[in-house]
Amino acid sequence: MWGKDLYAHLSDVYLNKARYTVMFISKFYKAKIWPRHERAAAQARALLEESREYILPARFDDTDIPGVLPTTKFVDLRSLQPVEVAVLICKKLGRNPLATKAHDLPSPQARAFSGEASFDYSSFNGRFRIGSGQFEFETRWSKGGDRAIYCYTDSPSVRAVALAPKGATITDIRGGSKLDFTSRARLAEIGRVVVIQNHHGVYAALQILDIKDDSRGTAQDLLRFRYRILANGSDDFSAGGADTSAGANGEERPHD
After folding, report:
1. In which element (H, E) is residue 42 found?
2. pLDDT at 96
C-alpha cells in the first residue's frame, strides 16, 4: 500500500472488495481513528447486503460499538484459542484449513535468476523451485546414489528435461533447444548439466555440484547445484547470450 491514499483505499476494500469483515471488538478498537473509518465503510456495505451477513463480530470485551446491534451473533474471544477462531473463519469462507495435505506445501525456492542452491531432496517430494512468475521452474529430484541423481518433468511448471553433453559447463551450452528432451526422467551425475524448459518456453540450466545419499553414510540426502535462468527468451547460455537481468552474484531482479 506504499504511497496509496489509505482513506480512499481502505474505503474501497471494506465497501467493495471484502467477502466478509471480521470486527475484533474491544475498548481499544473503539478508541482508534482508523478502525472507525474502516467500520463506517463496512457498515455501509452491510446495509447494501440484503441476502446475507457481512460483518462478523468477534469480542474481546463487552464494549458497545455504534451500529453493531446486541442481537447480532458474535464470537466470544475470551473463551476461544486463536486457532479455534482461525478455523471458524475458514469454515465461514467454506474452506477446510487442513484439506491440503502436508506434502502439498509449497517447496523451497531460490528466486534469483542465477546462483547456487542446496536442499534436502528427501523433503517436499524432492521438489525445489528456482526463479519466480513466468520464469519459475519447480524442479523435482529423486535418489540415484551418491554420484548421480534423477531429475523429472513431473511438476506442472516444467515442460522438458535434457542432459548437456558430458564435460560441458553451463556457459558451453549455445543451443539448449537442440538437446534431447524426449524422456520424462534424466540421471545426472556430479558435474553434469541439466537443461530444463518451463511451460512458458523459458530455459534454465543446472550444474550438479554435489550429492549426498543418507543410505551411504551421510546425515541427510542433499543436492547442491549451480543454475542460470535465461529471461531473454533464448536458449544460449554462453557469455554472449546469457541473461543479464540478474547480477553477477545472483541478485534477484525485481520482476514481480
Report:
1. helix 33-48
2. 81
- Look-up of cell digits 523459458: 202
Pairing assessment for the beta strands 148-152 and 137-143 based on DSSP bridges: antiparallel
Q: Is 26 exposed, middle or buried (0-12, 13-18, 19+ CB in 10 A)?
A: middle
DSSP for 53-67? --EEEEESS----TT
Whole-number pLDDT of residue 253: 37
Low-confidence ranges of the chain (pLDDT < 50): 241-256
Per-domain residue ranges for the chain? Answer: 6-92, 103-230
Cell 524448459 locates to 197
What CA–CA distance (Å, rounded) separates 231 from 108? 21
Give the chain's end-to-end CA distance (angstroms, integer): 15
| 123-140 per-position pLDDT tens digit | 999 999 999 999 999 999
Residue spans of beta strands (DSSP E) within the chain: 21-25, 55-59, 75-76, 109-110, 114-119, 127-130, 137-143, 148-152, 158-163, 185-189, 193-198, 203-212, 222-230
